[in-house]
Design a protein that fits this description.
The protein is 43% helix and 16% strand. The chain contains 15 helices and twelve strands. The strands form three sheets. It has a seven-stranded mixed sheet, with helices on both faces. It has a three-stranded antiparallel sheet with strand order 9-12-11. Strands 1-10 form a two-stranded parallel ribbon. The radius of gyration is 20 Å and the shape is globular. The chain binds pyridoxal-5'-phosphate. The site of pyridoxal-5'-phosphate (PLP) has 12 residues, from α3.
Length: 348
Amino acid sequence: MTAYRADLLSDTLTAPTEGMRAAMAAAPVGDDVFGEDPTVRALEEEVAGLLGHEAALFTPTGSMANQLGLRLHVAPGQELLADADAHVVRAELGAAAAFSGITSRTWHSERGRLEPEAPLGLAAVGCGQYQVETALVVVENTHNFGGGTVQPLEAIRRLRHETVDIGVAMHLDGARLWNAHVATGTPLAAYGDEFDTVSVCLSKGLGAPVGSVLVGSAAAMAEARVWRKRYGGGMRQVGILAAAGRYALVHHLERLADDHERARRFAEAVAEAAPDVVDPVAVETNIVMLDVGAIGRRPADVVAGLAERSVRTYASGASRVRCVWHLDVDDAATDHAIEAAREVLAAP
Ligand SMILES: Cc1ncc(COP(=O)(O)O)c(C=O)c1O
């Protein structure tokens, strides 16, 4: 339980609901390392189906799902390409290099929005012994540090068309792909079709307490299963956790639209008071980035001012404050956050 009247720190904060806890308690389980947990198997089948892939693998975290995906495609000494603000390069603590000997090169973008020309301009293939070989492009959808930005399907398709031609694989960090799907109505499989592997998180907007899923071909998932065990991620009667994810897919997917609506309402109200701080049109999903540097304010001061008013947020870089909507932020909490933000941003 949060101590804040509006806890906008992250969509990972949600507590399991009563219904979710009941589903967890009732879940049939078995030893998943032996492939015998029926609830995990059902979740893996469901998620693979939703994303149009052959097979899936349940993992404890999104970082592990991503890291398994990356190592499937990139050999030690090869490189991946990703947006400069991508979670895989900014927030997984160097795991691709530390675990898999992968180097990374990055491109810059406006709010994380994918422009296929950027990775294509960096890609180096057929370099022999002279340059690092590009093996993978990673796309993040929605883009977290970009501010919940939805990647246009058309841009993804153009990138896929070109990377297939040059033999470069594509991995989707879809921790919040659910939000992109609900915001645009684009079927999950339409995104899934364009990637070799996709990771999705159950523990963000969907509200499960733990868990992510990696999808790909049956052969790729068999290999990922071996590496998951090697990383210490082979879990036993873990159907009680998979049950939370299955419950969330039925009960918490479509309601992400409520988070999007509240985030947009907050942004519109803040923009009325401080137009340079946020453009509501840029708020596509559940994340609002306030550019407080644009009015000469320091993120840490704004975060502290909001915290004094019982609103928790996150200072992101030198200029921005991130606010994230989720299952445990309702209309009243949103109204409270609006009042607090108006006060704090109006203060000299
Ligand atoms: C875009 C993105 N990918 C991956 C992750 C990793 O998820 P986890 O915290 O479960 O490792 C996060 C977590 O915030 C994320 O925002």
